[in-house]
Amino acid sequence: MGGSSSQVIASDGEKKLLDIGYEKTCDCDPSHINCLTPKEWIKAQIGVWRFNYEKRDIRDKRLHPATFPISLAAKVISLFTHRGELVVDPFVGSGTTLVAARDLDRNAVGFDLKKEYIDLCNERLRQLTLTGSSKQLAIQDDARNIPLYFKEEMISLIFTSPPYANLLNRRRRNKSRRGDERKNEQFMKVEQYSQDPRDLGTLSPTEFGKALEEIFGNMLPLLKPKGHCVIDIPDMWWRDKRITLHIIVVEALRKAGYELRNIIIWDRTNIVNRVGIFGWPSNYITMGTTFEYLLHFRRPPKKGEAHILPEWGVLEEKIG
């Protein structure tokens, strides 16, 4: 784990190509984007998703301030990859993407600036049973360097939750908490990942958007044609203004050459703790902690390549 020399298959100048699989190992039809059955596909079409945490999930914000459930990562990976294909998380954090990939027998590589997070990823992977032939790697490096590790058109899915610009780089006041719960262990803590100038969490929203455009633009050639990219991001409040991070992400990736396909809502109401009251009675504010955006992009098909859907009669026959 962690980018040792045994993972490198070639060195071309600064390139450090990884020894990792990326071709599908299932027997699915080549026209399919995943291994789902028609009935599973129908369930996935619902545009509002809800998940529960399990015992392997990390919820302690002292370990990582912004995590998502393994079940969320598993749904995204199941929807946009086949068994054996390659998933990359450029901001891997606590390693949930890698855990879900291990469960689903997908190859996966995660990158992060902080050694503490890479160590946490590797510890979580060590606790899992390796049942398939896939490999999951956690590498300490800047997301800007990801093109050094892969050949073009290797990656089937980019899935990540990036830093929230500099919006965690402030003291937490727990305004969403009730009464005595407000002054918990998070109260007045700065939950920003690091003060490393390479960290996107130190950037203003405008600079954050520019950095995303650069990072994801450089990763676009690494995606297979019509390969997928899903980004989990909330909006946030800053000094009584709504900072629409999801719009910043959409604009950045469109500029980088990606095609926006779907916007899915992650409904978090079932996992939000007891909440306080906001704005009553004069200033209505929705609770940002109750939902996040899952922004689905893809690399556009190559010129002249059509996207052919099956005939409705054939599809209905399969579902029935």
Describe this structure in words.
With 320 residues, the chain is of the alpha/beta class. It has a single domain (44-277, 291-301), classed as Rossmann fold. It is built from seven helices and twelve strands. Strands 3-11-12-8-7-4-5-6 form an eight-stranded mixed β-sheet, with helices on both faces. Strands 1-2 form a two-stranded antiparallel ribbon. It is globular, with a radius of gyration of 20 Å. The N and C termini lie far apart (45 Å). Mean pLDDT is 85; it is low at 1-6 and 308-320.
Keywords:
12 strands; globular; Rossmann fold; disordered N terminus; eight-stranded mixed β-sheet; 320 residues; disordered C terminus; two-stranded antiparallel sheet; alpha/beta
What is the domain tally?
1
Mean pLDDT, nearest integer? 85
Tally of alpha and pi helices: 7
> Architecture in CATH?
3-Layer(aba) Sandwich
Count every beta strand, where a strand is a DSSP E run of 2 or more residues: 12
Kindly report the spatial arrangement of strands forming the biggest sheet: 3-11-12-8-7-4-5-6
Elements, N to C (H/E): EEHEHEHEHEEHEEEHEEH
Which percent bin holds the helix content?
10-25%
Structural class: alpha/beta
Q: Enter the CATH topology name.
A: Rossmann fold
Unreliable residue runs: 1-6, 308-320
Q: What is the CATH C level class, in words?
A: Alpha Beta
Question: What is the name of the CATH superfamily?
Answer: Vaccinia Virus protein VP39
**What would the principal axes of the Cα set say about the shape?**
globular
Task: Describe the secondary structure blueprint for this structure.
Layout (H helix, E strand, L loop, with lengths): L7 E3 L6 E2 L19 H7 L3 E2 L20 H11 L5 E4 L6 H9 L2 E6 L2 H12 L9 E5 L14 E6 L44 H15 L3 E11 L2 E3 L2 E3 L1 H11 L3 E9 L23 E8 L13 H8 L1
Helix pairs in contact: 2-3, 5-6
